[in-house]
Design brief:
Radius of gyration: 36 Å
Largest sheet: 11 strands, mixed, barrel
Strand content: 35-45%
Structural class: mainly beta
Number of strands: 80
Distance between the termini: 80 Å
Length: 1194
């Protein structure tokens, strides 16, 4: 039962012949393993000697350290259930763990595990549950734990069966008790007493069965049944941070052959092995072999396609993390002065002024660096005196929603002031002019200004605070997630260094939502620890923070938020001496005080900060490290032996250290500033200022005669950029900065005024904000200048057809998006009521024909020149209907795909006639993704990714015809050009776009470069245009080209997440898309202008189609078809299919084809493919040529 992870089998089977048998696993000296651990067949990994079963079964937290994945009274003694373990460091395994961790923590980019401990409990049953005797009918569960180890942190990955747990409780003391999952440190003994108390713990599942069932149904990593946690470092769980992605990612859905099928077959037998993530057992000789490939992609697998993660509503239950303090270990080293600066390839001779006045410049091989002098610390660019209190000033702006309020509270340039007593790590922060609606709810955010606490934290031996390492110029972005409401807030801060008053300068922006703290309530924040991980010019940290809200009625609420932040900075690359910075340090924060002063509209924070080791150990006793030394606030504490220490006044002060007094350099050395200068004394330092008529020379020290300089003309002013601000020269060397019209600010910093929020446009107009300006545009159906809009009389279909043809003919060559003109356009004639005349004629060709009420030509009524049709011949009878094809009634319908079928919904105007909805095509065992419609032959086309194939069938009945069945992997988008008789499709696995005739012949690849995950594609036959979207998670985009592949252009690349659906409306010439990443539907014109949001906050759109004033999209989460009126920007209707499952592609079946023309209507005289473009067409050969093809451009 015992053995080294490297000297027994790579995988070892644990069998519980005696239910108390435990396998011990010890780490080798030459390998890095998380901790000495013991694997228990009862579903947990112990980090210390476990107790007897009666002391831990049904009890969480446990009295000893453990990771519980499925803690219960489990049985594997029947030969069917098994437990495997192995340690693995192969790249294929480590890459797989990195994939899971990265998806759970998208902002972490320094994840490089060195080892993984993999434990698999396979087909284990609940103890005491018996079946028919052979064990095959017992309920069994399979689950897996992977512990990935790095030098600075470790992660636990928990896998549960995606198809659900077969049992969720086990017998304990004669009762059925739900299993437990979570982390427990066990009992912790106090340092100065013999008593023990419960250490920190973190529960994933609570005591109710519903939370256990959610283990296989929900996630914190974007993948169903997969839970990822950062668990700190050995030997303690110094902090437990759950994954951030609480919604199921698109990877749980459709991609190349990896489809979560809607199966109607019965569930697997209870005795059958359930799927797991990592192979549980591999022979020793196989250790060097490659990792086996995943199963055939049409079967359910743990890995699903990598779609971007989409935020959604929070989970129904949340863990209860607990943070505690751990004493620091003693280090003997003490930090030296810091040696960093900003990069420059020049020498100190010409750049010395770029260093702090308290720093020296040193030349290196590749350039120079700045070094703070003894008695100062910083990065050389910014240096401050050791022991001296530090101040931070800045501005705070934000747009914050509070509670469930639909409207944000906005504020701009509010003052922030902070003060730190550097020799004891105590920090104070105040922000002014915070309105009463926001102030109370800001109380939990002590770290809003607490970064100065990290920057000047009290340093423990061998560790350095933030300012010592990176100075005062850096950027910080923090993401805060509040539980259980899942409100999210983003904090962005820019630290701009130390100003002439020795104050650190910062600007802060807040964006997001806060849970509401009622007015008059007080907030108490528990002490917490935060791990800072230091990389190249990048620092990351995370923590869980508990806080208590005391309401006016005396009730108390305990809440939690997760805090993750990234700090970026620029170190000096020229320094040849590599600094020895601890890769991971722990910030300990306690004595936290928060208060909102409603009378003065001030939010105040105070806290004590220490920076030190991440490992446990007895606390430092020297007063210099505890902050209890009694030194003057302007003195540095110098530690001695034991608890001995001395106090030394900071530079610029004098005294015995217990009492320090400012040195007045101006009085003691009057000539210190030189001639033509005035000396101004300041605490700890002094400033020299040139007298009137003089200014500092380039050395920054000598005052010379002041020659007037027009800083506005020379561009040496500090006004905002000319696009936002105006610089006005006022004589001598003075100037004034002021913001341009449309902007607000002090002239040095100007921000755009969003006039659209001020209601400047008419109520029937759409407002488009731009930098410094805005435009108003009347909505469709109204006319005017946008400031005044009046309704238009609605035109009939015949009148609209006439108008569109006449307008397109009149625009001439000045319209970029213009139909290519025919030799002579046919213009329909309308009667006095706007209806189609029953007989229509085209004078240029001398033909007439009959039309129905929709303007559609009646077959067999067209006559020759000089003749008019006399009668209507009935249309021929079409083919009979197959049992799996249901013909649709005349009129416009919506077609949409579900797994295994295509359904249709009749449209009554723009309303969905839900009562008449039914299946059009039954396609068992198929997953239909894209749907398109040919209005000429009234055929529906679709793509199927299980085949894969592209097929068609008639709406009027007939056989299903397969068109393309080879050289496909995942056809997910489909578009039809009804004029040129072409179809286009995307393949998201082959990463290409192809074209073919409508019968599937003459295939040609249009694009196979710069595509990662192409999905939706739409065609505009009138202009010979193609539009498609690529949801590449690293760079989503919407592109456009001609149908012959020329003029490829990126239309949209900003503010996209997962553009799943795309549609083009030829009437309004609007390109619209549905984005499951930004959760918006947006539209713009085809050249990328006038982008606007139609609806936002939607759930998970997949496909979209336009029809008149409505947009219809399918939604995976709602499992519905949703109607949106893009003239009023609101949702109007929803259709829920009778059988609920994911819905995919969607299309409309118009009663007649839009009046249009392109040069390929009759194949353009080409021998093979005629591909339209904006100003003509191109004859192209298919990829498989028969030798008789001719290519040409016309």
């Amino acid at each position: 039962g015992e053995g080294s992870l490297e000297h027994v089998f790579i995988a070892t089977i644990l069998q519980k012949f005696c239910r108390k048998m435990i396998i011990h696993v010890f780490p080798d000296d030459n390998t890095f393993v998380i901790f000495q651990s013991q694997i228990n067949t009862n579903g947990f990994l112990a980090v210390e000697e476990p107790k007897v079963e009666s002391e831990y079964l049904g009890k969480m937290p446990a009295s000893f350290g453990m990771i519980a994945i499925f803690l219960g009274d489990l049985d594997n003694s029947d030969g069917v259930g098994k437990v495997y373990y192995r340690q693995d460091s192969r790249p294929s395994v480590l890459l797989r763990t990195i994939d899971h961790i990265s998806q759970a923590f998208p902002q972490d980019d320094e994840i490089k595990p060195t080892h993984a401990l993999i434990i698999t409990w396979e087909n284990v049953a609940a103890h005491g549950e018996h079946g028919r005797g052979d064990g095959l009918d017992r309920k069994r569960n399979t689950f897996q734990l992977v512990v990935a180890s790095m030098a600075s942190a470790s992660y636990a990955i928990l896998f549960y069966p995606r198809e659900g747990l077969q049992y969720i409780s086990t017998p304990v003391a004669g009762q059925s008790v739900p299993v437990h999952a979570g982390f427990s440190q066990g009992l912790v003994q106090a340092w100065f007493s013999w008593s023990s108390s419960q250490g920190p713990y973190y529960r994933i599942a609570t005591d109710d069965e519903a939370s256990v069932r959610q283990l296989s149904e929900e996630t914190n990593s974007g993948r169903r049944g997969v839970w990822v946690y950062e668990i700190g470092t050995s030997p303690f769980f110094s902090s437990i941070t759950p994954g951030l992605v609480t919604n199921l990612s698109p990877e749980e859905g459709v991609a190349v052959g990896q489809v979560e099928q809607v199966s109607e077959s019965p569930p697997r037998n209870n005795g059958e092995q359930q799927e797991i993530e990592f192979p549980p057992y591999e022979h020793e000789e196989e250790e060097e072999t490659p990792e086996p490939e995943l199963p055939p992609t049409i079967y359910p697998v743990q890995y699903q396609p990598r779609y971007p993660v989409v935020p959604e509503s929070p989970q129904t239950s949340y863990p209860e993390p607990v943070q505690t303090s751990y004493p620091e270990s003693v280090q003997t080293s003490y930090p030296e002065s810091v040696q960093t600066s900003y990069p420059d390839s020049e020498t100190c001779a010409s750049n010395r002024q770029k260093c702090s006045s308290f720093a020296d410049c040193k030349d290196y091989t590749n350039g120079y660096c700045c070094h703070c002098r003894p008695g100062f610390y910083g990065n050389g660019k910014d240096c401050v005196a050791e022991g001296k209190p530090q101040r931070m000033n800045g501005k705070v702006s934000g747009r914050v929603f509070v509670g469930n309020s639909p409207s944000p509270l906005e504020f701009y340039n509010n003052d922030l002031h902070s003060y730190v007593v550097a020799n004891d790590g105590r920090a104070y922060v105040a922000i002014s002019t915070i309105p009463a609606g926001l102030g109370p709810s800001l109380q939990p955010l002590s770290s809003l200004g607490g970064v100065i606490g990290w920057a000047f934290a009290l340093e423990q031996p061998g560790y350095e605070n933030g300012f010592s390492i990176i100075g005062g110029v850096f950027s910080r972005q923090a993401e805060v997630t509040f539980l259980p409401g899942n409100e999210r807030l983003t904090i962005k801060q820019e630290f701009k260094g130390v100003d002439e008053h020795d104050h650190l300068v910062v600007s802060t922006e807040l964006e997001g939502r806060l849970p509401e703290v009622p007015h008059g309530s007080t907030v108490q924040i528990d002490p917490y620890k935060e791990l800072y991980q230091y990389g190249s010019n990048r620092i990351t940290s995370s923590s869980n923070r508990d806080y208590t809200v005391s309401l006016l009625d005396g009730s108390v609420q305990t809440k939690t938020y997760q805090w993750r932040q990234t700090i970026t900075y620029q170190s000096c690359p020229n320094d040849e001496a590599v600094r020895d910075v601890q890769p991971t340090q722990q910030l300990s924060v306690d004595q936290i005080f928060v208060m909102y002063d409603s009378g003065n509209q001030l939010i105040r924070y105070a806290m004590s900060n220490k920076i030190g080791s991440i490992h446990g150990g007895p606390p430092e006793q020297n007063p210099c490290f505890t902050g209890r030394h009694g030194c003057d606030t302007n003195a540095a504490c110098r530690p001695g032996e034991g608890v001995q220490f001395t106090c030394k006044c900071s530079t610029g002060f004098t005294g015995d250290g217990r009492q320090c007094y400012d040195i007045d350099e101006c009085r003691e050395t009057p000539e210190i500033c030189g001639s033509h200068a005035v000396c101004n004394n300041q605490p700890g330092t002094f400033r020299c200022e040139c007298v009137d008529g003089f200014q500092f020379a380039s050395n920054g020290k000598t005052c010379v005669v002041d020659r007037p300089i027009d800083h506005c003309q020379r561009g040496t002013n500090n006004c905002d950029i000319p696009e936002r601000a105006r610089c006005s020269y006022t004589g001598a060397s003075a100037y004034i900065c002021s913001c341009l019209s449309g902007f607000v600010g002090d002239g040095h910093t100007c921000q755009d005024i969003d006039e659209c929020e001020q209601g400047r446009c008419h109520q029937d107009a759409v407002c488009y904000n731009a930098q410094g300006s805005f435009t108003c545009q009347c909505r469709p159906g109204f006319h005017g200048d946008g400031f005044q809009c009046a309704p238009e009389l609605e035109k009939t279909q015949c009148e609209r057809d006439r108008e569109s043809i006449q307008v397109s003919s009149d625009t001439g060559s000045f319209s970029f998006f213009r139909p290519r003109p025919a030799v002579s356009q046919y213009i329909p004639t309308c009667d006095q009521h706007g209806a189609y005349e029953p007989t229509q004629c085209h004078g240029s060709i001398g033909q007439c024909w009959c039309v129905d009420g929709n303007g559609q030509e009646v077959p067999n009524t067209r006559t020759g020149p000089g003749q008019r049709p006399l009668s209507v011949i009935p249309p021929p009878i079409g083919p009979t209907t197959r049992p799996d094809v249901s013909p649709v009634a005349p009129g416009t319908h919506l077609l949409f795909a579900q797994s295994g079928k295509i359904e249709h919904i009749p449209l009554d105007g723009y309303s969905m006639n839900k009562g008449e909805a039914k299946a059009l095509l039954h396609l068992p065992d198929r997953v239909v993704i894209a749907v398109a419609y040919d209005c000429v032959e009234k055929m529906v086309y679709w793509t199927d990714i299980t085949g894969p194939s592209i097929s068609k069938a008639s709406l009027e009945g007939g056989d299903i015809i397969s068109l393309v069945t080879t050289d496909l992997e995942s056809p997910e988008g489909l578009a039809i050009d009804y004029l040129a008789r072409l179809m286009f499709w995307t393949d998201s696995m082959k990463d290409r776009i192809e074209v073919a005739k409508l019968d599937g012949s003459q295939r040609r690849v249009l694009f196979d470069t710069d595509l990662v995950n192409p999905r939706p594609i739409v065609a505009d036959p009138s202009y010979g245009r193609l539009y498609w979207a690529d949801w590449n998670r690293d760079g989503p985009k919407i592109e456009m080209s001609n149908m012959d592949g020329t003029d490829r252009t990126v239309l949209v690349k900003d503010d996209l997440g997962l553009p799943n659906g795309l549609t083009y409306d030829p009437e309004s010439q609007q390109l619209c898309w549905a984005d499951a990443g930004t959760r918006k539907v947006q539209c713009m014109d085809p050249n990328g202008r006038n982008r606007r949001t139609i609806v936002e906050g939607i759930q998970y759109p997949f496909a979209i189609v336009s029809h008149g004033r409505n947009l219809y999209y399918t939604d995976w989460r709602r499992e519905a078809v949703v109607a949106v009126d893009h003239t009023t920007d609101r949702e109007t209707d929803e259709f829920l299919p009778q059988k609920r499952s994911r819905v995919y592609g969607i299309a409309t079946t118009p009663t007649q084809c839009p009046q249009a023309y392109n040069y390929c209507s009759n194949n353009g005289g080409c021998s093979h493919l005629c591909l339209p473009r904006r100003s003509g067409f191109t004859c192209r050969c298919p990829d498989v040529v028969d030798g008789s093809c001719v290519e040409r451009n016309l």
